[in-house]
Design brief:
mainly alpha; 6 helices; 59% helix; 0% strand
Length: 99
């Protein structure tokens, strides 16, 4: 089954008028899927990077530092939030960024 946003975009590209009812019906069909729907990790990564760069402890760091930290931290079993990253041991955090 096509994921919700892909379906919605294709519906619009095809020039069809989309209604709230169409959205609700398609979402209801997706919820009947026996398997778990794939999770979108981009929101977590974007939130992490945004929080990383806005933290005053990371002044002078750039996006490449934030990405290194994200990919290092992503490999852990901890929740994928910046707060969890900050609370993690320094050994985990230091694997991502060398200062």
């Amino acid at each position: 089954m096509v994921l919700f946003n892909c379906w919605r975009k294709q519906y619009i590209i095809d020039g069809k008028t989309i209604t709230y009812g169409d959205l609700v019906m398609h979402l209801a069909e997706l919820k009947k899927t026996p398997k778990r729907l794939p999770q979108i990790s981009f929101a977590r990564m974007n939130s992490f990077i945004s929080d990383y760069l806005s933290d005053s402890n990371n002044r002078g760091s750039g996006k490449s530092d934030a990405l290194k930290a994200w990919f290092t931290f992503k490999a852990t079993s901890l929740p994928k939030t910046y707060q969890a990253y900050k609370n993690s041991t320094s050994s985990i955090r230091n694997r991502g960024v060398v200062r």
